[in-house]
Every structure is written in structure tokens, then in C-alpha cells.
Amino acid sequence: MSRSAPSPSDFVADRASQPLIAVADPCVHCGFCLPTCASYRVLGTEMDSPRGRIHALKAIAAGELELDATVASHFDTCLGCFACVTACPSGVRYDQLIEATRPQLNAPELRSPWQRQLRRLLLALLPYPQRLRALLAPLRAYAGTPLQELARRTGLTRLFGAELEAMERLLPALTAETFAADPEGVVPAQGPRRARVGLVLGCVQRLFDPAVNAATLQVLTANGVEVVLPKGQGCCGAVTHHQGELDQTRRLARDLVQAFTAATADHPLDAIVVAASGCGHTLKQYPELLQGEQNFGIPVKDVQEFLAELGLSEAFRARLHPLPLPDGQAASSARPLRLAYHDACHMIHGQGLRDQPRQLLRAIPHVELLEAVEAGVCCGSAGIYNLVQPAEAAELGRIKAADLSGTGADLAVSANIGCSLQIREHLASTPRPIPVAHPMELLARAAATPGTAEGRAPA
Ligand code: SF4
Ligand code: SF4
């Protein structure tokens, strides 16, 4: 049976959409979700709010509204951040509604030819690390160099349109690690083995911030966890899943399950672990996505969730020392290192994980956690949202950067690669630009000997 997306008219007529509409029924139009909604925050229109979209879905199902390009554009402005699900007192599962709607939005007549081509290009590149590496290779002489600075300052990057400019602005400095072969094999635990996990590298994370996976490996193994890295592991499908491309997502998911199954046939794992919360959210949805096909058969955990449950080992805790302050002095009780932890939507709303990263960060001596005013509002990254809806995403990025910088923190902390790239870009334009690091990087630095590469102050 084909699982390809039905057309918009099928969506209206299809009886199968009726249970979906039943999901919307508990909505009492109270509007409690509106202040948390990122798209409503920047667009201010009812049609770009969860309540408005739920109303539109009901009208489509009732045959009173056609899902045409204009209506579809109001679904495209949704970031899929699920803040509305957390906020809703009636328990409306808007996440289920938007995930079921997204495949319908990919019907050719609902987007402009440019938007279709752009999405096709991004989804043909981002989930395939080897293709992306090939594309990035010539950009190594540009990204993070004075040439890039000059191109931005002279407005050259604006000539190619808002979407390509947004891509350029997210491009980080590319290091040798970006182009190195993916780590593979078995990395043994230090000391007595407490657990054995498979580590999902993520497609964008392994290229755009390879230090995160390296730090995750250090922290896991230093805590007595053996880590298996299957040869040739691909993308988990988070990027395509977020765009409603279900067939492509299922192909990527099957390949990833196969890679881990083959690598661990003789040595079962305790968990599949990942250090990017967007990936973790999709990996946890494999049972629904693969519908009875072979799956991992073991729990999927965000690395913070896994380590908080396992508990940091006594040996690891003993190694943790204060991190350096921006002036190079070690943090102390008189002057702690102030961290503003950014809650990624796919972590806090998608996986219900809020305390675990904070708990781990508090294990580092002389750390003070500061809370952003709008911690639960999306930063505008949201998969490829910041590339296909650049204006709305940029506004959200500016709000998030100002919020994090405004806490007075020395450092922002993010456990999702998409958020980290987005926040880094926008923090750079604030009056108080601060660096962004992953919790695993901070733990690895705190456990390293001061003065070593791992123990250096955050750049
Ligand atoms: S989705 Fe929930 S919070 Fe939003 S209007 Fe409906 S009932 Fe109220
Ligand atoms: S998922 Fe996020 S952007 Fe979409 S309606 Fe809900 S709160 Fe708004």
C-alpha cells in the first residue's frame, strides 16, 4: 500500500482525516496557547496562531474551506515547536494535527516554484553528510574568514535573496573535523563499564559542530559508558520528518536502524543516545513512523536524559573543576560562571525534558544558571524553517538572542544544533555577544585538565 501524501482535496474528503479532526475537538478557543506561539508572536494574526490553524483544519474537514496556497501559507508559518501543546489546558495535541497536515502542504500547487525547488534542494542535501561535505569543501576558504566578513559588510550576500542570505549567515567556520571521516567502531568505557550505548551523530551536527559529538564521547566514556558508532550511519530523518516528507523519512529511519542493528548484533545496547534534541524527538517517533517494521528495540534517550538517569560517576564528579570566566580567571563562589540555558523546543515541548540538562550543568563547580524571560518560546530555527521562512525566523532569532544576552550570562547553553547555529548568529548582533556551547562541551571542559585543548575557555 502506498503511503504517499494524499492531495488537499483527498484531505477534505478522506474519512481517515476524521479521527484527526477529533484531536482538535477539545479546543475551546480559550487562546491560552497564543502568548507561547512563536509564529503568532511575530505575525500577530489569528490564522498564524494554533487556535486559528485548528479552526482552519476543522473548516477544511467540514468542506467549508479549501486548502489552497493562501491557507497553506498559514500552516507553513508554524514552526512545529509544540509550545502550544505544553500551554493548552484542554490537552489539544496540536503536534499530531500539524504533523498530519504537513504532508498535505507538499502538494505542488500549494507553494511557489522557488519554494518547491529550495525545499527539494535542502532535503536532497542536509540529510546526506557526504553530499553536504562535497558542497561545503569549496566554502572552506570563505566561511569564518575575512572574505565572509567583507561579503556581509558590502551587502554582497543580500544579492542572492533572503533564503540564500539566511543560509550564508548560518554557515559556521569550517574546520578540518568537518571533513574528517565519521568516528566509527567501539569506544570503551573508562573504568568499570556501567552501560553500553549507540551514539547517533546527527547529519548537520557532525559537520557544523563536530566538537559536540567529540565532547559527548568524552563525557560518556569518562562516566563508564561504552559507545558504539556504527560504520556509515546516516541521518535520522528529523529534517525530512519536520517537513512532512514521510517516505524519505522512513527510508532514512530504516537505514539508520539497519546500521545500528548490524553493528550491535553480538553486543546488545542499553540505549540509543543522541546529543541533538531535534534528532532525539524524531528517533523517539520511530515506532509510529515505521509502524511495526524493525526498530531499535531499545530506548532512545537524549544524552542529558540518559546521563541524568544513570548519574554522573563519582570518578567523573571528582574530575570536575571550575570553568574559566570571560577574563580567564577560574569561576569561584564569589564570581560564578553564569549560564543561560536555552530550552530547545524539541527537548522541552517535544520530549518533556527540562530539568536534566540543568541538573548536569549544576554538577560543574561554581556555575550559576540564569533563566531567560521567554525560555519556552522558539528561537526560530525549527528544522529548515530559518531557511524557508527567513524573515519570521530572523525576528524570532533576534528576540531569543536579546533574551539570552539580557540575562547577564557569560555563556548561552544549547543542546540542539539548529538552535545553536541560529542563536550564535543572532547573539553576534547583540550589544553583549556571548558564546554558545553544548552542555556536553562544558562537562568535557570541566573534566579536562586546565590548559589542555578540552579545558580551554569557550571561544
Ligand atoms: S489549543 Fe488549547 S490553549 Fe489553544 S485555544 Fe484551543 S483549547 Fe485554548
Ligand atoms: S507549534 Fe509552535 S509555531 Fe506552531 S502553532 Fe504551536 S506554538 Fe505556534
Characterize the structure shown:
This protein has 459 residues and is an alpha/beta fold. The protein has four domains: 8-110, Orthogonal Bundle (Fumarate Reductase Iron-sulfur Protein, Chain B, domain 2); 113-178, no CATH class; 181-309, Rossmann fold (3-Layer(aba) Sandwich), CATH 3.40.50; 320-455, 3-Layer(aba) Sandwich (Rossmann fold), CATH 3.40.50. The chain has 26 helices and nine strands. The protein has helices spanning 8-13, 17-24, 38-43, 50-61, 69-76, 83-87, 94-105, 113-125, 129-136, 146-153, 162-170, 176-179, 203-208, 210-222, 238-242, 246-263, 277-283, 286-290, 303-310, 314-319, 345-348, 355-361, 385-388, 390-406, 417-427, 439-447, and strands at 185-187, 195-200, 225-229, 271-274, 300-302, 337-342, 367-370, 411-414, 436-437. The protein has a five-stranded mixed β-sheet. It has a four-stranded parallel β-sheet with strand order 7-6-8-9. Helix 25 links the parallel strand 8 and strand 9 (436-437). Helix 2 (17-24) runs antiparallel to helix 4, helix 14 crosses helix 26 (439-447) and helix 19 (303-310) packs across helix 22. One iron/sulfur cluster is lined by residues 27-33, 50-51, 54, 84, 87-88, 90, 92.
Brief overview:
The N and C termini lie far apart (52 Å).
- CATH topology heading of the largest domain: Rossmann fold
Molecules bound to protein:
iron/sulfur cluster
Tell me the distance between the termini. Answer: 52 Å
CATH architecture of the largest domain: 3-Layer(aba) Sandwich
Backbone structural class: alpha/beta
Helix content: 40-55%
Tally of individual helices = 26
Spans of 5+ residues with little confidence (pLDDT < 50)? Answer: 1-16, 453-459
- Beta content: 5-15%
* Mean pLDDT rating: 91
Domains (count): 4
